[in-house]
Amino acid sequence: MTDEERQELLKKQKTDKLTPADRYKIPPQDMPEQDPVKRRSNVNEVATGYTETHARLEAMRCLQCKKAPCIKGCPVQIKIQDFVAAICDGDFKKALAVIKENSLLPAVCGRVCPQEVQCQQTCTVGLKFKDPTKAVSIGRLERFVADLDQEEIIPTVAPETGMKVAVIGSGPGGIVTAADTRRAGHDVTIFEAFHKTGGVLVYGIPEFRLPKAIVQKEIDVLTEMGVKIVCNFVVGRTRTIEQLMKEDGFDAVYIGVGAGLPRFMGIEGESLVGVFSANEYLTRANLMKAYDFGKGADTPIVRSKKVAVIGGGNVAMDSARTAVRLGAEKVYLVYRRTEKEMPARIEEVHHAKQEGVEFHILQSPKRVIGDQNSRVTAIECLKYRLGEPDESGRRRPIPIEGSEFQIDVDTCIIAIGNIANPLIRQTTAGLEFNKWGNILVDENCKTSLDGVYAGGDIVLGAATVILAMGQGRIAAAAINDYLAKKKQKS
Ligand SMILES: Cc1cc2nc3c(=O)[nH]c(=O)nc-3n(C[C@H](O)[C@H](O)[C@H](O)COP(=O)(O)OP(=O)(O)OC[C@H]3O[C@@H](n4cnc5c(N)ncnc54)[C@H](O)[C@@H]3O)c2cc1C
In the chain, how many domains are there? Predict the structure, then answer.
């Protein structure tokens, strides 16, 4: 589509009412991206964002369906058709205000939410063309208006209640809980184990997908609102939940500690030098900025030549693409099912391929091989075939006996998932958990302990940013309610 054609359509939208047929004719607006060859050697954001023209044209593709099936696909029920209509009209402030009614972190969600399996999956336009890539790009539109938000609006805080809330963990769930409880006038403190706030948004998801300045802006809003932030504070080690409540005077606690414990495969050679959990690899690279080692940062990271990343989710894609940027000559993504079953976002798979990551599907390591110095030299893999669907609904991978072969590598990154860290469990009597170590909560995110709430990955297992935010919101509403009643009684 030429620029003139784009301008013509925008004019038409102002003068005539567009029919559904007109809207179907507008092609999906691609988002400009950094060239794949150039971006292999930098950590700048890959997708550079819509221009105003792109955004308005994309918004014009929306049919404004009365039943708005997209909203049903959104875990926090943003009024999607309203914000998209506001973009169509060029009223970007209104569009942002509509989004912010339900989502506090639109610049984050517009970038990392898996819209293709949420709001966009149910979009009528995509369904009409029987092609999900033709759905209205709701996520890109959300990002567009969020990025225009130059002047941050600091939410109003109610008069001080004198009640104290402890938020444990500063991931998306913790950020939302802190904002919503502070708005109600409570004295809120976030306790964070790391030296930096943001949770997976800063230590896991790489800069090239989510610039850290965006997360910092949200943290700055919290401090402007009067939320206190205490870093390098490990609840369960520095203080227990019981101490926070009984000795330090906190009236309510939100546990949002995520699922930060990496899973390993339990195969021979996993403790060799050069085997990393994806968590360690990404934390060094992102949070500690190891990509800038020797120039701006003092955290080293192995300079690998040949890297195998094991797994097929977002974490695996992030690890593989980070290895590319750290200068690896070959990066192999080894996954035991096929691309169809990969849990990673389609966009991430596409970007990884563009950047030269080689996909080894239907393969998985049987052991890691090392040299006399205990350094990784290769992985021995088995080939797999797919059987019947398992409990996850995906076809079960079945190893093919005698199919062993080796891939020469000097680094192996295990990205097969994360589980709950047992620290809170080991140090909090009376808190109930399921068999996987996730905290049990009711529909208000209340735990088995009075005044203690929980949400995000520690409840759901490794899930998504938007689900963690949604639970943070539910928990904050319940905490506000609980504290209002507590105050009345006192
Ligand atoms: C590499 C990677 C990529 C991902 N990509 C996506 C994506 O593209 N889209 C998406 O929607 N989701 C993605 N996810 C998942 C998503 O990031 C998580 O679901 C989400 O961050 C969970 O939020 P949370 O608030 O529960 O906790 P987290 O973000 O995990 O934050 C928990 C915080 O608690 C702190 N903490 C832990 N224990 C303690 C303690 N004892 N005391 C004090 N603080 C503690 C941690 O240091 C951390 O800062 C990804 C995850 C990873 C690891």
Answer: 3
